[in-house]
Amino acid sequence: MREEELTAAVSIRDLANAIRVLSIDAVEAAKSGHPGMPMGMADAAAVLFGRHLKFDSSEPGWPDRDRFVLSNGHGSMLLYSLLHLTGYEDMTIEQVRNFRQWGSKTPGHPEYGHTAGVETTTGPLGQGIASAVGMAIAERRLSTEFGAALVDHRTYVFCGDGCLMEGVGQEAASLAGHLQLGKLIVLYDDNSITIDGSTAIAFSEDVLARFDAYGWHTQRVDGHDPDAIDAAISQAKTEGSRPSLIALKTIIGYGSPSRAGTSSVHGAPLGASEAAATKAVYGWTADTFEIPAPILKTWREVGAKGAKARKDWQARLEAAGADVRSEFERRTAGSLPARYEEAVNAAKAKLLDKPQSVATRKASQIALEALTELLPEMIGGSADLTHSNLTRVPAVDSDFTAAASGRYVSYGVREFAMAAAMNGMAAHGGVIPYGGTFLVFSDYCRNAIRVAALMGVRSIFVMTHDSIGLGEDGPTHQPVEHLASLRAMPNLHVFRPADTIETLECWDLAITSKNTPSVLALSRQNVPQLRAQRDGINRCARGAYVLREASSERAVTIIATGTEVALAIQAADELEARNVPAAVVSMPSWDLFEQQPKDYRSSVLGNAPRIAVEALSKFGWTRYVDSEDDVIGMSGFGASAPAETLYEQFGITGDAIVTRALARIRGKQ
Questions:
Q1: What PROSITE patterns does its record include (predicted)?
Q2: Which residues of 398-410 are buried (b: 16+ CB within 10 A; e: fewer)?
Q3: What is the pLDDT of residues 291-341, one digit of tens each?
Q4: Which of 107, 240, 563, 564 is 20 to 30 A from 324 (CA-CA)?
Q5: Same domain, residue pair 222 and 345
Q6: Is 473 annotated as a binding residue?
């Protein structure tokens, strides 16, 4: 909506001031929050939403809408103000009044799935940009598949200095330039202020020169000049293959007589007298939380202006043909094909017909070979470890590059950006992303994994080399504490499968878990195929199950995961040979096991003494065994040696299991 199209009495500055005063009022009412950024970026927001952003507030989930990501999520009131002003149904003025309060749709930082119009959870700085890179990847891939008539939208990002200081922001920007994601436009709030004071205390590089080097198109304009902002966005939209960064020179806390341009306005209310003085600067005379009718009417027109574009798009979808339409709708809904379960069962039957003793990372590749052909929405990748993670299979053997939009993304040595981009792809919809690295480097990915769990998106993290069993690379690459820390995370499936069958079942669960991300912890070393049942049951779905029951009433139960399940079977055989009835429980997923009814969990664990076996930290296992003395595992870091030597030296052996089991049975603690 151009300036000349606005009501005569309403200007872009009036629209921006509505954002400012709502943000000020909400932060004052909450007695906490971040008013400075919304006050500084309101002009850019008014221009972007009023003149460029393709959206329809009556249909927040319209698949071909432009995406708007508030990477500097602490300025959440800017977004909530926009959602209210443009007429999103559930963003009422009462929600704005209840900013940061229990049960509101206006939490301190924007949360995906909690508030309509929030495209991704932001707050951990830099991840918004990285998620936006994933959204741009998803858009380009889907446009290649379904055509520009159905998929043709941009991803816009607001970010601040913090997002550009964080390493993940730099990783993501480098990747975006390399892939030439031309529909990605970032508006940089260049206000020269951080929480601790001037950016000069820690941040002095030429940001535009850095982005030029990344291969971006860059501009610098006055962030309080609507026409200059408009022209810059218009120019960015014509840049073709280059992503764009527009540095907006802004004043944080714009309009505040005594606090504008200072760090004191970043993260605290203005206070009643300063808020009143600031509104006077704006010429704003309306009451608290009140928007003058002409301004609100104009904003609502902005929110409705995309309805025609959405209806035109809907007509194109209807005209695309039944097959294209049904596939597009299936993909955007996140549903799986009708033949999916049949494909899983066929893959399992093939493994049962011809058992394989392979590393579970190889078993993962076998599972992917079976499933990715049926699921064109699966987009794979690796952080420069493809041949170790084994994430590349024939169906995804087409590269996503600057020139082509294939199904495999080479993320480079950018684990954090990979994980965050995957979240953006999953939140965008229409694709199921999976990406690989070593389990030890899950630490680099961890905050993005946490955001995935918080959002409830289907990001699948393939983490290979899952224990000291990776061997000679030594303790820097041998994960010890990682699985325990990941298991502590809410709404995250953590799978450590024991063989080819369990690996396939865990992949099945990851793919079908639409609202929960997954980590697959996979081995470097080979393991025997342990399962032989042909009953069509996914036993991993219950988290743990009795793999081998005792010959008579249990004297001991051995619980194990991953590669150590085979070791537990060997120990159980030895105990049985000594007339000690021993059961083996395979526990590929703690979190799924904890979701089972108490009766089931009791039946699996039994009443006999229990031993746990895992070539990782003992931490956490005392929820299933009496003490860490009953855990055959690691108490410290690993070492550099062949896997067999490491298991022997660290006492993770069948003999150690037998010895501990006999001690428990004999009553020795």
A1: TRANSKETOLASE_1, TRANSKETOLASE_2
A2: eebeeeebbbbbb
A3: 999 999 999 999 999 999 999 999 999 999 999 999 999 999 999 999 999
A4: 240
A5: no
A6: yes
